[in-house]
Amino acid sequence: MLTLPPENRWLFREPFGTVFSDFSMVLPYIEGKIFCTVGDVVTHNALSAGLIPSIGVIDGFTKRSPYLKMPEIQGHILHVTNPAGTITDELIAALRLAMDEIPCVVMVNGEEDLAVLPLTEILPDGAVILYGQPEEGLVICEVNKQLRANAKKLLTYFVSL
Fold it and tell me: Is 41 a known ligand-binding residue?
């Protein structure tokens, strides 16, 4: 299990990709691509727009409050435990399995926010990751060599337990 020490959490306040203020603005970027969502609101917005993420990673909360708007989930559902501020081996294994079970929702008991990092390694080049940036909008990241390098660098700030 990787744990992000509290003193390094500031590194994750900046978006990991391009920020859009409205979900409709990202539609041209995900058309015809494998795309994954991390977070309840962004997953809800994708499903409400009639789009089914290849992998949706949710925890039932938004801004630490229960999120009750989720439309009916389609596809396989995997349940994992991933405490806040961590990336567990269980989460990574579920994300890998989810690639073989598309469409799939990974329901996290704990927190899903950091799932973006392992997804950069698991997804193929050209896939897109969408996640919410509180008070800013929606972040879109296209998986490529540079994104993987950025994720790998951020992972150096974690400690292994």
Answer: yes
105 annotated binding-site participant = no
40 is known to lie in a ligand binding site: yes
- Is position 112 annotated in a ligand binding site? yes
pLDDT of residue 40: 92
Report helix, strand or coil for 49. coil
The domain of 100 spans 2-160
Successive 10-residue mean pLDDT values, the chain, 161 residues: 94 92 93 95 91 93 72 84 97 97 95 96 97 91 97 95 81
Is 142 annotated among the ligand-binding residues? Answer: no
**125, 42 contact by CB (below 8 A):** no
How many structural domains does the chain have? Answer: 1
**Which of 42, 3, 35 lies closest to 160, judged by CA?**
3
Nearest in space to 35 (alpha carbons), one of 113, 132, 103: 103
Nearest one of 88, 83, 82 to 161, comparing CA atoms: 88
Counting DSSP H helices and E strands in the chain, the numbers are 5, 12
Contact 160, 1 (CB under 8 A): yes
| 134, 14 contact by CB (below 8 A) | no
